[in-house]
Design brief:
The protein has 212 residues and is an all-alpha fold. The protein has one domain. Helix content is 81%, strand content 0%. Helix 4 packs parallel to helix 10. The protein starts with a helix and ends in a 10-residue tail after the last helix.
């Protein structure tokens, strides 16, 4: 027996697969939010390209579009909140490292980070770009370049090895979904833990009362 939450996730995943390219846009927006769905975009992109091998450039394009839209939303949050809000979200030491890296290699930081696979965290880079008021056009260009390369490679891989990938997913469909759910849950837990830790670090200690 599966729990209601697990059944709901199965339904959502089937719905995304049925949507095809638009499903990648929807998932891309969610995956590049403050709580990323680790690995979900990679798997869906390969899966769809494996099922419709001639359409792999289309799936790569739609995955990139979804990722850029989601990334721009996160970038806008960082831009609106500024450096102090980003430091609260990421923890001060972590934010300082990202700010330092970004100030030296702005375009490269976004582009290379967008190409790297999970579990590399992209959200801190997106927030830092916004907090440091990095130009919008350069940000979108760098993110589109990095994600475009990544999803083109994944979609091309799915098209090239479509038969083997299709057989794998038909045989291990449910375990694969459970793994994705677990990774997404882990990403959410880590994000929540980081947020709670940053709140504790900001809370001033109360002065001790003197004994009467």
């Amino acid at each position: 027996m599966y729990s209601p939450d697990t059944i709901a996730l199965f339904v959502v995943w089937r719905w995304l697969v049925r949507l095809g390219g638009p499903g990648l846009v929807v998932l891309g927006i969610a995956d590049n939010s403050v709580i990323p769905l680790t690995g979900s975009m990679d798997v869906l992109t390969m899966w769809l390209a494996a099922r419709h091998r001639d359409l792999w450039p289309y799936y790569a394009l739609m995955a990139t579009a979804g990722a850029v839209l989601g990334g721009y939303i996160t970038y806008s949050l960082g831009r609106k909140g500024g450096k102090e809000a980003t430091e609260r979200k990421l923890h001060k030491k972590k934010a300082a490292k990202v700010f330092s890296r970004f100030s030296h290699w702005g375009f490269k930081t976004v582009a290379v980070s967008a190409m790297l696979p999970p579990p590399f965290p992209l959200v801190p880079v997106l927030l830092a770009a916004g907090a440091l008021q990095y130009p919008k056009k350069k940000f979108v260009g760098a993110l589109a370049l990095g994600r475009g390369i990544r999803y083109s490679l994944l979609a091309g891989f799915g098209s090239l090895y479509g038969k083997a990938i299709g057989e794998f997913f038909s045989r291990y469909y449910k375990p694969a979904i459970f793994i994705l759910v677990g990774l997404a849950a882990l990403g959410g837990i880590l994000t929540l833990a980081e947020y709670l830790r940053s709140r504790r670090s900001r809370t001033p200690a109360l002065p001790h009362r003197r004994a009467a």
